[in-house]
Write a structure and sequence with these properties.
- The complex is a heterodimer of chains A (276) and B (311).
- Chain A has 14 helices and no strands.
- Chain A has 276 residues and is mostly helical.
- In chain A, helix 2 runs parallel beside helix 9.
- The relative contact order of chain A is 0.15.
- In chain B, the strands form three sheets. A six-stranded mixed beta sheet of chain B has the order 5-6-7-3-8-9, sandwiched between helices. A four-stranded antiparallel beta sheet of chain B has the order 11-12-10-13, covered by helices on one side.
- The chains are: A mainly alpha (276), B alpha/beta (311).
- The structure holds adenosine-5'-triphosphate and magnesium ion (MG).
Chain lengths: 276, 311
């Protein structure tokens, strides 16, 4: 492996991403809305005793969420003493967790589509194909240039989210309650796998289609299983407990490996050109 | 024959049923500027891809710079530079970034990259705009930048796929002069794909003519011109309402002619008989606005070659 060439290609892709106003806007806006404004607002709402008591007495959804809850999670929630504390814990620790699946998945599939199908669009891929690199090196570079920024944004997002929920919940909690073990496993184990899913699906699609637009559309389908997971959680069917995250992470990693292996087999520079 | 940088034997590549390159046998010598002439779809770009190990051939052999494109692709591509058909420079980056990054990918020693990039920007007259995004460049500037990028690692062999297509005459001349400089002063071997016969005659030492994947002829431009046998003819512009009358007069001189708008093309006329034809027409009262020797086109070469093949 010619790591110098790989690094140069990754650097080029990252430079292009950071120089593109639209992409940067997505990179900043999405996390700001979903990891700052939304959780901050909801935590503040959950700090208000009136809002919480109204919600717990009138909403049957909340009850369902409680009754189906595994004991480990129930125990964790019940350790909080007031209704407000419990509400905040549920919201901050569970409701927003799936975002850390969707975010890396979306970002990585977006960048991968741009760096492959987009390069075909802009005809720059052809120059890359004449460089003294092997197919495997271009493939590796393209994977890394989607995976790295998706992970960086996710990690930064995690820290920002932690600061936001701890700060907004401080008057009620009186201590730093975030993150718990679930979240650490989520960010370290599941989020990178989700990013891998987005990019491997996107790379697979991108080497077969000729415009970034098509790649976005087909690549976007990978979000579906995650959306189902979110619905499952809200409906009280699925809970993101540590064990569940470990297992589902393993499944996604395995799917990643299969997709990546398959992608490597069809990633041939001659084939990429055939579809220019 | 002693110093060939490109040698191919029966090189063939199909796409489905379509044969893009058909049994190509060719030799290109070190230091020469070789023109690869052919119309759209003749197989020029496919040949460049085969010779760089980007596409695999289905049969035949090729050796480029002593390496096999199929087996030693990366090692070979380290020593070739390719200007692709569309400029393929990254429009969202600056010229400097485009060059810097490719120097890195091509493995130019790190401590030399800066100097190298500055030198080549100056050589291609891009220094002033080096830190501007390429998206705002003119077509000619993009083409110069693409050429600069193809040279950033000082390749031994340079492939240029239609380097002047889509450029205005001034920009095209600029690019041609650069190619001349590269070959004369820097000793590069250059393989140029083009469909412009005049251009090939101006800058190439030797020319190969492709048609539908087959190499029809190969030789120096003057050898090929000789094969044309003075077929090129005379082109005159006359008053539109006199076209039929003029054709009648030409017919009387045993000359065929074709009409395109108010341009009359008379293939049978060579340099010596031009004054006589013009004066005959003028005496008959035909208004001649312009007269020029017709530029030989690729068709003329095809025609001459096919005729020769028949006889
Ligand atoms: N990847 C491909 N898939 C299918 N057919 C192809 C492919 N590449 C080239 N061809 C076909 O092979 C033939 C030769 O194409 P090629 O691009 O080599 O021609 P060319 O001489 O470079 O033409 P142009 O002047 O248009 O660039 C054409 O008929 C083209 O349609
Ligand atoms: Mg071509």
């Amino acid at each position: 492996m010619n790591w110098r060439a790989i690094r140069a290609i990754v650097y080029k892709d990252l430079l292009v991403v950071t120089r593109s106003r639209n992409t940067m806007l997505t990179f900043i806006l999405l996390p700001v809305i979903f990891l700052v404004i939304l959780p901050g607002g909801v935590v503040l709402l959950a700090s208000n005793p009136d809002a919480v008591s109204e919600f717990t007495t009138q909403s049957s959804d909340m009850e369902m969420f409680f009754t189906n809850m595994p004991d480990s999670i129930k125990g964790e929630i019940e350790a909080y003493t007031t209704d407000n504390q419990r509400a905040i814990a549920i919201v901050a620790l569970y409701f927003f967790a799936p975002l850390f699946l969707i975010l890396p998945l979306l970002l990585s599939s977006m960048i991968a589509a741009d760096s492959l199908a987009g390069e075909k669009d802009r005809k720059t891929l052809e120059a890359l194909i004449y460089t003294p690199t092997t197919d495997a090196e271009i493939y590796t570079a393209k994977l890394l240039s989607a995976w790295i920024p998706a992970l960086v944004v996710t990690l930064v997002g995690f820290v920002v989210y932690g600061v936001v929920v701890n700060a907004t919940a401080w008057p009620v909690m009186g201590r730093i309650f975030f993150p718990n073990l679930t979240w650490i496993v989520l960010v370290v184990w599941l989020a990178p796998a989700a990013a891998g899913l987005g990019l491997s699906a996107s790379v697979l699609v991108s080497s077969r289609v000729s415009t970034a637009q098509e790649a976005y559309q087909i690549g976007g389908l990978t979000v579906l299983p995650v959306v189902m997971l979110v619905i499952g959680q809200l409906a009280g069917v699925v809970y993101l407990s540590v064990g569940f995250i470990l297992i589902i992470g393993l499944v996604i990693w395995l799917v990643d490996l299969v997709l990546l292996w398959f992608g490597a087999r069809i990633f041939r520079r001659g084939e990429l050109l055939a579809r220019l | 024959m002693t110093n060939a940088v490109i040698t191919t034997h029966g090189l063939t590549r199909k796409f489905g049923e379509k044969i893009a390159v058909d049994g190509l046998t060719l030799e290109v010598q070190a230091g020469e500027v070789f023109g690869f002439l052919g119309h759209n779809g003749a197989g020029k770009t496919t040949t460049v891809r085969l010779l760089n190990g980007v596409l695999a051939a289905q049969s035949g052999t090729a050796e480029v710079l002593g390496l096999s494109p199929a087996k030693d692709g990366p090692a070979l591509r380290r020593r070739t530079g390719v200007l692709t058909e569309t400029p393929s420079v990254d429009e969202r980056l600056t010229a400097r970034d485009n060059l810097r990054i490719y120097a890195d990918i091509y493995g130019v020693p790190r401590e030399q990259i800066r100097q190298h990039v500055d030198d080549i920007l100056a050589m291609f007259e891009l220094s002033d705009r080096a830190n501007d995004k390429v998206g705002g460049y003119s077509k000619g500037m993009k083409q110069r930048l693409a050429l600069a990028r193809a040279l950033i690692h000082k390749p031994d062999l340079l492939f240029l796929d239609e380097p002047t297509s889509g450029l205005d005459p001034v920009a095209a001349k600029q690019v041609r002069d650069l190619i001349g400089h590269l070959s004369r002063d820097e000793g590069h071997t250059v393989f140029i794909c083009t469909h412009n016969l005049t251009e090939a005659q101006r800058i190439c030492d030797r020319v190969g003519v492709m048609e539908q994947g087959k190499l029809l002829a190969i030789g120096t431009p003057s050898e090929l011109a000789r094969q044309l046998g003075g077929r090129a003819g005379l082109e005159i512009e006359i008053a539109p309402d006199q076209v039929e009358q003029a054709r009648g007069i030409l017919h009387g001189l045993a000359l065929d002619s074709t009409v395109e708008h108010d341009l009359l093309n008379i293939p049978g006329v060579d340099r010596e008989s031009t004054p006589k034809v013009l004066s005959t027409l003028a005496t008959a009262g035909i208004s001649i606005y312009r007269a020029a020797p017709a530029e030989p086109s690729l068709e003329d070469i095809y025609f001459a070659i096919h005729n020769r093949g028949l006889s």
